[in-house]
Amino acid sequence: MKPPGTFVEVGGRSLHMLVEGSGPPVVLVGGLAGNWFDWDAVAALLARACTVVRFDRPGFGLSPASDEPPTVRGEADRIGAVLDAVGVPAPVTVVGHSMGGWYAEGFARTHPGRAAALVLLDTSIPARHPVALPRRWRLGVSTGLARGASACGLQRLAGPWVRLATHGAPDEAAVDWIRQTFTDPDYLRSALIENAAYPDLGVELEQLRPLGPLPPTLVVAADSGRSRRWVRAQRRLADRLGAGFESLRPARHNMMADRPASVAALIASMTV
């Protein structure tokens, strides 16, 4: 299969990305272990009036893996480098889903003037008391678990089903890419390493938050009707950031799959 999009060198590393449409620029930043195809429906709608940039971080989608765990500042710099590589110098609307919201906010805070607006889709919220388990232990255990699951065949059996449970049935065009991605040992290892880095990323984001100010910002909560506490937490985050707030109901965490038209409309409302 010929991959959609293209590969570019960013910081000495090959990254897979797609640029679609024309108009005000929007960059889409996936959450934990997010892939380019997670945004297919939203990107197709946005590309009618916007230039849409989406990319795979190292180890996800079609981008080669890295042995380095992520940092908020490092991923923020990667967003900027991706925009440079594809020739988008103008300020962009940066959209982050879940943990990708930390990277998107980090970009807005550490690259002042490059973010015209910020949209946080059901973004992660740093824990008040991060896990005390040493970082090297968390990363070591994650690497070992990934190797074991791949070696025994568990990943090959369960990977595509996990994606189906979290995102629903994919478009036919994405089925083969999903199967390839979710059965790739590098993908599982990268996902578990990013998850292991989660407490450190939350601490780092809090350290970056005094930087700013943020551009116009919108926090969007997924309201499944089951967790009012989570929606309230998202609203409190919006208040803390001085952001607008919207909730989508019904919607699961991966709202790009549940409510692509609504998500695209909210993002479009923030573009300039």
From TrEMBL:
Top-rank taxon of the source lineage equals Bacteria
**Keywords, alphabetical:** Hydrolase
Might you report a single GO cellular component term?
A: membrane
Q: Which InterPro entries match?
A: AB_hydrolase_1, AB_hydrolase_fold, AB_hydrolase_sf
Database matches in Pfam families: Abhydrolase_6
Q: Which GO terms describe its molecular function?
A: hydrolase activity
The residue ranges of the AB hydrolase-1 domain are 26-265
PANTHER family with a match to the protein in the record: AB HYDROLASE SUPERFAMILY PROTEIN YCLE, MONOACYLGLYCEROL LIPASE
Q: What is the name attached to this protein's record?
A: Pimeloyl-ACP methyl ester carboxylesterase
